Each structure stands twice: as C-alpha cells, then as structure tokens.
C-alpha cells in the first residue's frame, strides 16, 4: 500500500509527477477539486454549498472539505493505495486527515514536496507564451518559436496568459508559501516529508521519487 500526498508550488511540475505516479503505482486518485466539480454538476447540497466559495475564488471551509475526504476514505476502494490531490492545504486539514486515517487504520506513506526555487519558477512561468488559436505553448528562453512572438504551427501572434504575468506569479507564490509552510513543517516534524529537487528533467524527478519511495517502503 502506497498512500501519497504530493505538494509543489505553482509551476513546479507537480501535476506531471502526480499523473505519472498514479499510473506507475496504479493508485486511486482523490482530488477534492474533482469531487467538488462533480457535486456542483449534480447540484447536491454539498455542491451548492461549495459553489458559494469556489465562485468567489475562496477556499472551501475546512469542515466541509474534511467531511468530503472522510466520506471518500470511509467508502473508497484502494487496492494499491491512494494519491491525495489538493488536500490538505492547511495545517488544520492535515491534523484532521491524520485523525481520519488513524480511525480507518491507514497512514500516509510519504508527503512528496517537489522543490523549485521561486526565482526559477518565475522565469519558467513568466517566459511562457501560448498560441490563442491552436494552444501550442512556447517559452521565450527554453522553447522559443522560430519567428519571434509567432506560432510555428499556425502563424498566429503569441500571447502571455494573465496568470503567467510576473505580478500574478509572484502573488500566487506568496500565497502558496504563506499557506503551505506550516503544513510542510508539520509533516517534517512527523518525519513524513520527502523533499525532491524539481529543477531537473521530468524523468529525473520521477525516477528520484520512485527510488526514494522504494527505500522508504523497504524499511517498513
């Protein structure tokens, strides 16, 4: 059984690693974001309640999210283990999660933190350009188009997305760092935190995670 939580700042490549780990270990995906979207589509009481916050761009209150995760853990089927996504986001949620896991006789194998320095993330994200017509993505430094500001595929003028603008990136990183530091400290104290250097190719990062998980599981 592998029960994982993966964390990383916006742009650290957490999504890519999460998908690869899910496939590699055949884990069950527990995504609070997906659950809320499904509940909102169904128009369930939970969905209606969550929509009030999500539509305002606010975090859904802890007790609501905790209850949803509790339901999933209580009724879920995890033949190989699970991967938590988007939860916990606060220390209070982490404490609640630990209590729930204990209640159901489970525990987290590891909390993976894909670590990339803010300045590198800023360069990665602020350098991104996208084609509004065919969605091709470029990077002014790492993957520039042949003709400046022009899509190789369809010749459309490239744009920079609003959330890739420097000010927006810095703001997202600031919020992430403020909210997440207590969470990382919590898992560090519990010796569950696995720090992975994210400033490498996606393959290198993935192989490092798999190797470290193998060592961790070998000791159990």
Quick tags:
Rossmann fold; 14% strand; five-stranded parallel beta sheet
Question: What's the topology here?
Answer:
Blueprint: E1 4-8, H1 14-25, E2 28-31, H2 32-42, H3 45-54, H4 62-75, E3 82-85, H5 91-103, E4 110-115, H6 118-126, E5 128-130, E6 137-139, H7 166-189, E7 193-197, H8 202-218
Parallel strand pairs: 1-3, 1-4, 2-3, 4-7
Antiparallel strand pairs: 5-6
Give me the side-by-side strand order of the main sheet: 2-3-1-4-7
In the CATH classification, which architecture of the domain at 4-116 and 180-218 applies?
3-Layer(aba) Sandwich
**Uncertain regions: pLDDT < 50 for 5+ in a row?**
none
Q: Helices and strands: which structural class? A: alpha/beta
What is the CATH third-level topology name of the domain at 4-116 and 180-218? Rossmann fold
Largest sheet: 5 strands, parallel
- The average pLDDT is 92
Distance between the termini: 11 Å
Structural notes for this entry:
The structure is a single chain. A hairpin with a 6-residue loop joins strand 5 and strand 6 (137-139). The strands form two sheets. A five-stranded parallel beta sheet has the order 2-3-1-4-7. The protein has helices spanning 14-25, 32-42, 45-54, 62-75, 91-103, 118-126, 166-189, 202-218, and strands at residues 4-8, 28-31, 82-85, 110-115, 128-130, 137-139, 193-197. By secondary structure, it is an alpha/beta fold. It has a domain at 4-116 and 180-218: Rossmann fold (3-Layer(aba) Sandwich), CATH 3.40.50. The protein is built from eight helices and seven strands, in the order βαβαααβαβαββαβα. The chain is 50% helix and 14% strand. The radius of gyration is 19 Å and the shape is globular. The longest helix has 24 residues, at 166-189. The N and C termini lie close together (11 Å).
């Amino acid at each position: 059984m592998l029960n994982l939580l993966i964390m990383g700042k916006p742009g650290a490549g957490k999504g890519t690693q999460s998908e690869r780990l899910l496939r590699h270990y055949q884990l069950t995906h527990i995504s609070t974001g997906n659950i809320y979207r499904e509940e909102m589509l169904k128009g369930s009481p939970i969905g209606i309640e969550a929509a009030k916050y999500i539509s305002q761009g606010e975090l859904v209150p802890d007790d609501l999210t905790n209850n949803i995760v509790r339901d999933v853990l209580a009724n879920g089927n995890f033949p190989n283990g699970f991967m938590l996504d988007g939860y916990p986001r606060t220390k209070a949620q982490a404490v609640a999660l630990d209590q729930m896991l204990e209640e159901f006789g489970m525990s987290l194998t590891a909390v993976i933190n894909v670590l990339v320095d803010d300045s590198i993330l800023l360069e990665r994200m602020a350098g991104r350009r996208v084609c509004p017509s065919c969605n091709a993505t470029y990077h002014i430094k790492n993957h520039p188009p042949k003709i400046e500001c022009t899509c190789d595929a369809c010749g459309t003028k490239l744009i920079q997305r609003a959330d890739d603008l420097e000010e927006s990136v810095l703001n997202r990183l600031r919020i992430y760092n403020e909210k997440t530091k207590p969470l990382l400290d919590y898992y560090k104290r519990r010796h569950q935190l696995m720090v992975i250097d994210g400033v490498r190719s996606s393959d290198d990062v993935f192989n490092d995670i798999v190797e470290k998980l193998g060592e961790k599981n070998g000791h159990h």
